[in-house]
Design a protein that fits this description.
Layout lengths: L21 E4 L21 E17 L2 E15 L5 E8 L7 E7 L2 E8 L5 E7 L2
Parallel strand pairs: 1-3
Antiparallel strand pairs: 2-3, 2-4, 2-5, 4-7, 5-6
């Protein structure tokens, strides 16, 4: 079951953040389908969700077959296994700090969706269709 939070979010600031990241592989099973991408700009392959903030955060990510709930801080990258048709994520800052929480969905190392918030305890909800 995939829960998607829908609505309009108006972050205080929108920024692009490049930081080093840890990669965490968490299996989310998906139906198998054929997908080829030939324009990769990095060595990463497949679908990933990257979360970054100077403070701590919590949330979930997944596809139509299920989701994973995670907590963390700093920058982390999570693998979404298989060939999902839709990936969504919803993360919240766990502190009132002024840092920016950024969530990205990547395909073969390329950012296909990104959203940010710098609001205290701010929420980022993001989704991408791979049709």
């Amino acid at each position: 079951m995939l829960v998607v939070v829908s609505g309009m979010f108006s972050p205080d600031k929108t920024t692009a953040t490049n930081t080093s990241s840890d990669t965490v592989s968490t299996p989310v099973s998906t139906p198998t389908s054929s997908s080829n991408s030939s324009n990769s700009s990095s060595s990463a392959s497949g679908i990933q969700v990257k979360v970054s903030d100077s403070g701590s955060w919590s949330g979930s990510y997944g596809d139509t077959s299920g989701s994973q709930t995670v907590d963390g801080s700093g920058s982390k990258t999570f693998e979404v296994t298989g060939s999902p048709s839709v990936v969504s994520a919803c993360f919240q800052k766990k502190d009132g700090g002024s840092g920016t929480l950024t969530v990205e969905i990547l395909e073969d190392g390329n950012v296909v969706e990104t959203k940010s918030t710098s609001a205290q305890y701010g929420v980022v909800s993001i989704a991408h269709s791979f049709f």
